[in-house]
Specification:
11 helices; Rossmann fold; six-stranded antiparallel β-barrel; Elongation Factor Tu (Ef-tu), domain 3
Length: 316
């Protein structure tokens, strides 16, 4: 999959294209269905399959103080979209100039003149153009006038809940990993480079941890202890993740994401690590003593081993 920023470069390289247009935060099961339908249509008419999204996320540009945290990093979004059979990902640079484009101009100039789109696929609630004035119905009207096909994906539901980035975010904020996974279609993940910790926690207690520097724009799930699959390089390990402020260790410590990797003794400072969260064992708790905390950590590790050996989690 090619990753490009210039729509004219897409048309020069790929010729006729069909586009799935959206923000695709989380690349959840609704997004996946939309993209797969676009790819299927593109193959049918022998055109290239292109996902068109915006970077940074429009809300980060328009409402930087109010924008919700993203479900995944940009790198993770690229990785997930690349698995869906797409030929190219167009990441349109989003700024205040683009935000002021009318929906009609965006369609005529970007989708038609620069991209030469043969078809455009969007979700039922997608909006675009200045002040979000562009709607799927307007896009369908413009498609008829300008000669391209428009397909609007209806809501994707799970147990009467419409799948959206918002409901995924709510599940993660509540620490409900199972519910988040059902909406995403994959285990929720965090990734970051291993950095030096405060040296006051795991290693001194006999449970060395890797502290991750997480992209500050990405949502971190509810505080607590999680079972995880840990990817270091090309290798997978089991781990126990702590998200929180370690209240037993000391006051006023900043929130951290740290993982104790089971059966692992390597020094990995500076390495890139990805965590796939499988289950939340418990919420964060302040213990009466470090000894009590150590006993609980041992129980957490045993619980993690038991869960990973179970049929539900062994194939993660």
């Amino acid at each position: 999959m090619q990753v490009l920023k210039d729509p004219q470069e897409i048309s020069r390289r790929l010729g006729r294209v069909v586009v799935a247009l959206g923000n695709f935060d989380g690349v959840h099961i609704g997004h996946q269905r939309l993209i797969r339908q676009m790819v299927s249509y593109a193959r049918k008419i022998e055109a290239a399959a292109v996902v068109c999204t915006f970077y940074p996320h429009p809300l980060q540009v328009l409402f930087p103080d109010k924008a919700p945290r993203l479900l995944i990093s940009n790198e993770r979004k690229i990785e997930l979209i690349s698995r869906l059979g797409v030929d190219a990902l167009l990441m349109l640079p989003f700024d205040h100039r683009m935000a002021k484009l009318s929906p009609e101009f965006f369609v005529q100039d970007v989708l038609c003149r620069q991209l030469g789109s043969q078809g455009v696929f969007v979700g039922f609630n997608f909006t675009f153009g200045h002040r979000g004035a562009g709607t799927p119905s307007l896009l369908q009207k413009l498609g008829k006038e300008l000669g391209f096909v428009v397909e609007v994906l209806p809501p994707v539901k799970l147990e009467e809940t419409i799948v959206s980035s918002t409901v995924v975010r709510q599940a993660l904020e509540e620490g409900d990993i199972g519910r988040a996974r059902s909406y995403l279609g994959y285990w929720p993940s965090l990734e970051g480079r291993v950095v030096l910790g405060d040296q006051r926690g795991g290693r001194k207690m006999g449970f060395p941890t890797a502290n991750l520097d997480i992209n500050q724009d990405v949502l971190i799930p509810a505080r607590g202890v999680y079972v995880a699959q840990v990817k270091v390089g090309d290798q997978l390990y089991d781990g126990v993740v702590n998200i929180g402020v370690k209240p037993t260790i000391g006051p006023d410590l900043p929130p951290t994401v740290e993982v104790h990797i089971l059966e692992f003794a390597q020094v990995i400072y500076g390495e890139w690590v990805q965590l796939s969260l499988l289950h939340r064992l418990r919420s964060e708790k302040k213990f009466s003593s470090v000894t009590e905390l150590v006993s609980q950590i041992k129980r957490d590790i045993e619980a993690a081993r038991t869960l990973r050996a179970s049929a539900k989690f062994s194939q993660a």
